[in-house]
Amino acid sequence: MDKAEANLKSPADTPVADYKLILAEVLERRPSGTRGRLAVALGKNRSFISHITSPSYSTPIPAAHIELILEVCHFSADERSRFLAAYARAHKRRSALLGEAHRLKSHTFQLPDLGDGARNAKLHTLVSEFMRKLSDLLSDP
C-alpha cells in the first residue's frame, strides 16, 4: 500500500478498529451501566469510553487499561483471547507490556445512599480513585 492509499483508509479499517469492535460487541452484551462502571474504574468520563470503543476513532486503548477493561467487562475466555490477539496485531510493541501490567482483582462492596445522585456519584468516584491509588502504592517496589 502506498502513501496515497494509506491516507484514504478510514480509521474503521485499521487493526485498532478490530479490537475496538470486539470491545464494543462485548459491551453490547453486558448489562446497562457497564460503560459507566468502566468509566469510573478507569477514572475517566463516559465520553472516553465512547472514544475507546468506537472504531471510527483511531485513538488506541492504553495498554495500562487493558487488564481493568477485561475485568470490569467480564470478558469470556474466547472474547478475551480474540481481543488480546487483535490488540497484539495492532500494537506489536505495546502487547509485550500487557504481561507486565499489574492485574487488578475486582471487589464489590456497598456504599451508603446519600440521597442525592450527584453526591452518590462523587462518593463512588472518590472511593474508586482511592482504591486505585492504594493499589498503585502497594504495587510499587
Fold and architecture overview:
The chain is an all-alpha fold and 141 residues long. The radius of gyration is 17 Å and the shape is globular. The N terminus is likely disordered. The N and C termini lie far apart (46 Å). It folds into 2 domains: 102 residues, Orthogonal Bundle (434 Repressor (Amino-terminal Domain)); 35 residues. α2 packs antiparallel against α6 and α3 packs across α4. The longest helix has 23 residues. The chain is built from 8 helices and no strands.
Element order: H for helix, E for strand: HHHHHHHH
- Roughly what is the average pLDDT, rounded to an integer? 81
CATH architecture of the largest domain: Orthogonal Bundle
Percent of residues in β-strands:
under 5%
How many discrete domains? 2
Keyword list:
globular, 8 helices, mainly alpha, 141 residues, disordered N terminus, 2 domains, 434 Repressor (Amino-terminal Domain)
Q: Short summary of the structure?
A:
This protein has eight helices and no strands. The protein has helices at 3-8, 15-28, 34-42, 46-53, 63-72, 77-90, 95-100, 117-139.
How are the elements arranged and paired?
Elements: H1 3-8, H2 15-28, H3 34-42, H4 46-53, H5 63-72, H6 77-90, H7 95-100, H8 117-139
